[in-house]
Design a protein that fits this description.
Layout: E1 2-8, H1 11-26, E2 34-39, H2 42-48, H3 51-62, H4 67-74, H5 78-90, E3 94-101, E4 105-112, E5 114-120
Parallel strand pairs: 1-2, 1-5
Antiparallel strand pairs: 3-4
Helix pairs in contact: 3-5, 4-5
């Protein structure tokens, strides 16, 4: 697993970071395994990282499971957990993988994609 950074930033900062990474690659330097999710508007970040979704992410990180299993463990409605998993999946914080049930077909397992998530928010 890699580290994930969730931050606010401008388009100019995004491209400046890209240039720095390209320069590192040109010099043959190792590029850190960090997944960065940047929001221009802090309100968009706040809509993604609700208290319920943070708790959900922590539960998934502690023990990957199916959406039904996670919902039962958290005592939440399955459809609400599914919506929150979809939002975390879209942001790149979790993955959904198909696993084989011995003799019973397949099921989907939700896993955290990062071992660590750092949150950086600057409100101007």
């Amino acid at each position: 697993m890699t580290n994930t950074v969730i931050e606010t930033g401008t388009e100019a900062e995004f491209f400046a970071r890209g240039r720095r990474v390209a320069q590192q690659a040109d010099r043959g330097e190792p590029i850190p395994e960090t997944h960065i999710v940047t929001f221009e508007d802090p309100a968009d970040l706040a809509r993604l990282l609700t208290a319920a979704r943070i708790g959900l992410f922590q539960a998934i990180k502690a023990e990957p499971a199916s959406i039904t299993g996670i919902a039962a463990r958290l005592h939440r409605d399955r459809s609400a957990v599914k919506r929150d998993v979809d939002a975390l999946l879209h942001a790149g914080l979790v993955s959904v993988e198909t696993a084989v049930n011995a003799g019973h077909g397949n099921h989907k397992v939700v896993r955290a994609v990062a071992s660590r998530v750092d949150l950086h928010v600057l409100i101007d």
